[in-house]
Amino acid sequence: MSHLPAAAGVGFKPEHFTAIRSDGGKIGFFEVHAENYMGAGGLPHAQLSALRADHAISIHGVGLSIGGAEGLDANHLARLRSLCDRYEPESFSEHLAWSSHGADYLNALLPLPYTEETLATVVAHVDEVQNALARRILLENPSTYLLFAQSTIPEVEFLGEVARRTGCGLLLDVNNVQVSAVNHRTDPQRYIAAFPLHLVGEIHLGGHAEEALPSGPLLIDAHGTPVADPVWDLYSQVIRQAGPLPTLVEWDNDVPDWPTLAAEAARAEAILRQEADRLVAA
Amino acid sequence: MSPHSDILSVFRNALNGGGLPPDLVLGAADEAARRLAVYQNNVAHSLIEALAARFPVIRRLVGSDFFAALARCYIEADGPRSPVLAEWGESFAEFLSTFPPLASYPYMADVARIEFARGRAFHAADALPIDPAWFSAQDPWSARLDLHPSVHVLRLEHPAVSIWERNQPGGEQVTLPAGGEIALILRDRSFDVPVRAISPGDAALIEALREGDSLGSAAGRARSAEPDHDPRDILIHLMRQGALITPEQT
Amino acid sequence: MSAFRSDKEMNMTEKSNSLCLAASLACVLSVLAITPVQAQDMEKCYGVATAGKNDCAAGPGTTCAGTSKVDYQGNAWKYVPKGTCTSMELPAQGDGAPRQGSLEPLTRDVPA
User: Fold this and answer.
1) What domains are there in chain A, each with its CATH number?
2) C21 lies in some domain
3) How far apart are CA A236 and CA A241, in angstroms?
4) Going by C-beta distance under 8 Å and a sequence separation of 6 or more, which residues neighbour residue A280?
5) Which of A202, A255, B67, C65 stands the most exposed, by the fewest C-beta atoms within 10 Å?
6) What pLDDT was estimated at residue B249?
7) Is C106 within 8 Å of chain B by CB?
8) Yes or no, beta carbons of B31 and A35 under 8 Å apart
């Protein structure tokens, strides 16, 4: 599904660069956000080139607005193409969400209704991205806080159908599964049970924050804390069902020191190893 | 307009405080508003923080709360158009200069110009500095040098370089000079982007080199701008920073 | 421009200025030719540069995460700047009086 190793990686933060150069050997891969590497030169490219020389790399787009109603930004697609040509990442992924409307870029992953119409739009957009990049991409399930009354297709089915029609793979964000399930009072186990795990090329793990609504908890996909225990449990279950998969720990807000982040990756790595050992023994 | 486009327009309007129509989302209206607020906050907070990351000294000068309010006004006036946020903010200096609550702070716009130029310099294209040996074969008058793409010269009406320096981590509370300053901004060999005040002659020399003048012509123009200008210090400074490149590269 | 005029057009002061400039350029080239340019320690540069002021020059990064930090979202509200600008003495300007910015409360509708 992707060419990333079935090992634990982390989201790269520039402040960790020096630590990674001396202690990054155990990290399976590094993921960067495409939009942070679209300047012409300087430190970002110097760091990414150095990382790329020693590690597998995943490029994760956050601004393409694949779930938007309008056509994709051709200029942005071209920049993504040149970034992928330059670094030849093992994987490129984007989100089932929108972030641009009209001329405005909103810098957030916003929700869309799941209907036959939006399915056709997303399929056309994913086709366009895969053609522009000349590669297969992974599409990620979102965290959501609201459900549209107009939706007629369950999210898992929607993602599976996009993958079937476009040939893209899926990025399963296990924290997003937990966040959305808690927020919509549904069962995360059922979401995982229905998910086409054979299409998953990468897994994301991250921390969430919790607030309270009159009807119960509201989880926010804040990536500013360690991965929560229920998410680790769900993750272990996914790995037992699907086998070892490339797994990324995302920590984007209140970024901790390197040892703390590396310890989160080590926890995921241990789960992957345990499953690999179990498969060998079986 | 397709239903998809209509729904996103309604949602976009709701993000701006327009309210959610009752049939758009599932659940009780009061709770739906709380859920929508998560998205509203994600958009506002991420854009405010993005602007603050580009203009940290402006935030320090006016304080975080004022900056957040100011940022909301700027986002409404000229928010980002592209997912590459590093490119956003070019009009912020001009916006500050016409923002009535800051009318008593005319230097804010100059400080913002410095901060935006630093971002440009940080992300500018790479270019190899001149090999020192190149100079030994050059005629001093006719030699042509070019400047690294990160080099910016800003002529400022206010002592904004000194204000910027005072508001750096560990910045000293030096007395501000009267009148304007000229800022030299570049990316050095360590990828740092220092800001220094330069003289009118230094500025004229750099601008002339950028326009393709020979070293002799550029030094002459520097003297026109500043009698008795000596080009040595600024040229040696540029060389040490890796800011002199051979013309073929650009 | 004086450097480009013929000797006939130059007066004595200009001529001596021009000679002086020629000497100074010849001198600076010889200095530049021996300016030590250290090969940069890549590891050191890349790491050090991110630790301090460069965070600011880098500018905003993207996020694929939401936030639980709530930014105040009022409509008509009032706020006075409280940053370092309130205590910064600007030097005397045209009228001779030292200036310290006076803070205007920001009172207007702010988009939510």
Assistant:
1) 8-281 (3.20.20.150)
2) yes
3) 9
4) none
5) A255
6) 59
7) yes
8) no
